[in-house]
Amino acid sequence: MFDDTEIDFLEVEGDYDADTIARFIEEGGVDNVRLIVLRNFARQEDCRKLEARFNEIIAAFGSNRGEDGVVRNQQVGSTQFQRNGEDYVRETVKHLDHVIDLFSVLDATTVGNLFLDDDLERAFLKRGKVYRQARHLGGTGNFATTRKWLDNGAMTLHPHEDTAQIAQGAEDGFEIGGGPHTIAANLCIADDAEGSATVLWNHCPDDTVRKEMGLEMTGYPYPIDYADRFQKLRVKIRRGDLYFMNASYLHGVENSPTNYRITAGRFITPVGHKVLTWT
């Protein structure tokens, strides 16, 4: 639940080591590192293409996530939040056309590398594991969910953790249910000129804490004053950055001058001989 050793983050410019990232995903960290940021990973031109198409889809069809009283955002693609496996894969199929439309502005090779898929497939193969999208009842998890975070009060995205929702996925046997922790992989495709700060607190809530907070199935939101009892990292994220974070730890996004931040992201968890992605 709480590690007395302070956590840290790793910032990488240029060449990266896929084996280190695979170890990070499998173990939930490398030494005391709980966040890896690959700076300027994606080309600025590609990010702008994705940004423009995202805004076109939202203008034409609205958000794939309606007002749920939890988080205000504009979204393309499905999310497993508050859904079991069957509901999630059905939601994924429902919005698949929009996901394909969004990423079709880039060539297939570029899309295949946005989250290091090829490199991670090889890295995990060397570790005796298969890296793939999660499957359930013949359906698969979403490739990536893309969001623009809107005004949510004191923070753009309040303190939360993304392991609680695994329990809901496990209710009907969705294979992510066996995962020990959740890794978030996010690509920032648009942001304020100043960049907005991702915050990671050195606190990994367990079931007892979730029950006390009434957050067993959501993990959102934890009070800010509760999260601030623990050591925290503040890391500016900018257009083109790809980052991997242990999302079982409390994390959030601070407000920025315009709250104009668009990210494409997914979750990853290791389960036995498999390493699974979903959204």
So how many helices? 9
Please report which band the strand proportion falls in: under 5%, 5-15%, 15-25%, 25-35%, 35-45% or over 45%.
25-35%
Q: How confident is the prediction overall: mean pLDDT?
A: 92
Q: How would you classify the helix and strand content by structural class?
A: alpha+beta
How many strands?
15
Protein name: Fe2OG dioxygenase domain-containing protein
Organism: Marimonas arenosa
Could you please describe the fold and organization of this structure?
The protein has 279 residues and is α+β, with helices and mostly antiparallel strands. The protein has a single domain (8-278), classed as Sandwich (Jelly Rolls), CATH 2.60.120.620. It is 29% helix and 28% strand. The strands form three sheets. Strands 1, 2, 3, 4, 7, 9, 12, 14 and 15 form a nine-stranded mixed sheet that branches. A four-stranded antiparallel sheet has the order 8-13-10-11, with no helix packed on it. Strands 5-6 form a two-stranded antiparallel sheet. β1, α1 (18-27) and β2 form a beta-alpha-beta unit. The longest helix has 18 residues, at 44-61. The radius of gyration is 17 Å and the shape is globular. The mean pLDDT is 92. This is Fe2OG dioxygenase domain-containing protein.
